[in-house]
Amino acid sequence: MTKTVLITGGAGFIGSHFTEYLAARYPEYALRVLDVLTYAGRRENLAALENNSNFAFIHADVRDKQAVYEAMQGVDYVVHFAAETHVDRSILDPDAFITTDVYGTFVMLEAARRTGIERFVHISTDEVYGSAEQGAFTEQSPLQPSSPYAASKAGADLLAQAYYRTYGVPVLIVRPSNTFGPRQYPEKLIPFFTVRALHDQPLPLYGDGQQQRDWLYVGDHVRAIDTVLHKGQIGEAYNIAGGNERTNIEVSRIILNTLGKPESLIQFVQDRPGHDRRYALDDTKLRVLGWKPEAEFETALQETVSWYAQHPEWWQPILQQQAEYRQFVQQWYAGRETGR
Ligand code: NAD
Ligand code: TYD
After folding, report:
1. What is the CA 299 to chain-centroid distance, rounded?
2. Rounded distance, CA 293 to CA 176, Å?
3. Distance from the CA of 58 to the center of ligand 1, in angstroms?
4. 3-state DSSP: the chain helix, strand, coil percent, rounded to 5?
5. Are 225 and 237 in contact (CB under 8 A)?
6. What is the average pLDDT across 194-202?
7. Hey, which residues are catalytic here?
8. Which residue range forms the structural domain that includes residue 100?
9. What is the CATH number of the domain that holds 222?
10. Do the domain assignments include residue 259?
11. Do 206 and 323 form a contact (C-beta atoms < 8 A)?
């Protein structure tokens, strides 16, 4: 049966992959992407859909009540990705994280309450649980966020739960782990280090580089959201795990080896304040719905690195801005250490 789907943040990394995936899997669905196009959102990420008559782009801000309310008219499903997403940026300047991630989610939920949609998938994150010293978090684990980003996502996650319990808004929550793949903005570890290595520039590894993340390939991520959208139980949260726990130094080595670059490019730098040591999720609940990750980690990572190597036209236009911001981040962390 045909459905109209509103996808916020669809011009970003995961949102654009998800929109492409839905268009291919459910060609009868009408897809509306709402995105304000921040530094991380780019219309060209949706290039494959521009000639699709079932696709529409709405240039709007999730904090704009009127625009969101209008965009939600006639919508069956909402998938809410739009957010400020980078931890380092949240440490330097948390403001937009609070307004977009928390208030923007409130605006989305409020519009959903008033328009009476069928399902609202809220994209949360594993970072809401904080650092996993041992074991793996289940959906029942307490939310103990460390960074302003994680705290703003935890606020949004809790609001989504409250809108289900109080108003019966048909919310489903996903909490995915660190994701990688083509078209990820080159501020996140994998694309950032890949682009640096391509330029023979040092890879700034925070602290001792032994922090662990559970890496999830974007193709597995979007299939998991599809599973929850169509088969999940309303009112429930679902962890999405990659099943690929690796230290940051291990990931850095694979990037360098793929590009044939020396490991001497790894440079240990001042750690990120409040840096979570390890993320780990128990995804049993999602697997019961029939999903499991399929990508083989090293192969998917090598393919991703190769994609960046083959598509400089995608990252070159944003490189200068990213490099300047990055320098600012590193100076800020170093200055914090010396008390400047
Ligand atoms: P991204 O930074 O690549 O894209 C974010 C998108 O949201 C951009 O297109 C941006 O323009 C848009 N946006 C930002 N503020 C907006 C606003 N006020 N109004 C409308 N649009 C706005 O992010 P991503 O990595 O694709 O992450 C998508 C979602 O998945 C986020 O909610 C993030 O918290 C979550 N998530 C990401 C990861 C990861 O590893 N990337 C892991 C777990 C969860
Ligand atoms: P990141 O991609 O920023 O994702 P998150 O902080 O949401 O997990 O970082 C992934 C890991 O890589 C994290 O432990 C921080 C580390 N990291 C570095 O060591 N150096 C860097 O320059 C960046 C961007 C990240």
Report:
1. 21
2. 12
3. 16
4. 50, 15, 35
5. no
6. 97
7. 126-127, 149
8. 4-183+214-245+274-295
9. 3.40.50.720
10. no
11. no
Q: How many domains does the chain have?
A: 1
pLDDT at 338: 63
124, 128, 185, 248: residue to mutate for ligand 2 pocket, most atoms within 8 A of CB: 248
Name the residue among 151, 283, 147, 299 with its Cα closest to residue 221.
283
Helices 248-259, 297-310: crossing angle, 10 deg rounding: 50
- Two tokens, residue 63: 């904090």
Is position 260 within any domain?
Answer: no
**pLDDT 10s digits, 220-230:** 999 999 999 99
How sure is the predictor about 154, in pLDDT bands with cuts at 50, 70 and 90? very high
* Tens of pLDDT, residues 257-279: 999 999 999 999 999 999 999 99
Residue 328 domain flag: no
- The pick from 146, 152, 189, 329 for probing ligand 2's pocket by mutation, whose C-beta has the most ligand atoms within 8 angstroms, reads 189
Instruction: Please report the pLDDT score of residue 334 as a whole number.
Output: 86
Give a yes or no: residue 127 inside a domain. yes
